[in-house]
Design goal:
By secondary structure, the protein is of the alpha/beta class. The chain has one domain: Dehydroquinase, class II (Rossmann fold). It has 6 helices and 5 strands; from the N terminus they run βααβαβααββα. Strands 2-1-3-4-5 form a 5-stranded parallel beta sheet, with helices on both faces. The longest helix has 15 residues.
């Protein structure tokens, strides 16, 4: 099983950018934790970050035919990235949207997601642990694991 981990604009600044909102872990540290979790789950992940919507779309189109699901933090593209949304909808594999901060407890415009309607689910406000929750949930769903 292969899961794509996609990080949108400005996430390359994690650890430096507003740590009170986004935490003090760097993107490399988050990817490292995800790689360890992937090993525990017996799956492969491929992580990618870009500040460009076009590059994110190119990655999705190139890599999704060989992937089983996507975990994405679209960053600010959450609110207006319609071409990113269309690319995610087109791949026909499950998508889980992740946000480090609670987008519903911030400015009103942040609570609007163009990605949410095509996503299997959304995790918001759990910091870096939200990525782990998304990965574990997605793998469980793909394996049709129950909680019992």
């Amino acid at each position: 099983m292969r899961i794509l981990i996609i990080h949108g604009p400005n996430l390359n600044l994690l650890g430096k950018r507003e740590p009170q909102l986004y935490g003090d872990k760097t993107l490399a540290e988050i990817d490292s934790v995800l790689n360890r979790q992937a090993g525990t789950l017996g799956i492969e992940i491929t992580a990618f970050q870009s500040n460009s919507e076009g590059a994110l779309i190119d990655f999705i189109q190139a890599e999704s035919p060989e992937a089983d699901g996507i975990v994405i933090n679209p960053g600010a593209l959450t609110h207006y990235g319609l071409s990113l949304r269309d690319a995610l909808a087109e791949v026909k594999i499950p998508v889980i949207e992740v946000h480090l901060s609670n987008i519903y407890a911030r400015e009103q415009w942040r609570a609007q997601s163009v990605i949410a309607p095509i996503a299997k689910g959304q995790i918001s406000g759990l910091g870096w642990r939200g990525y782990i929750a998304a990965l574990r949930t997605l793998v469980g769903e793909l394996r049709a694991e129950s909680w019992q």
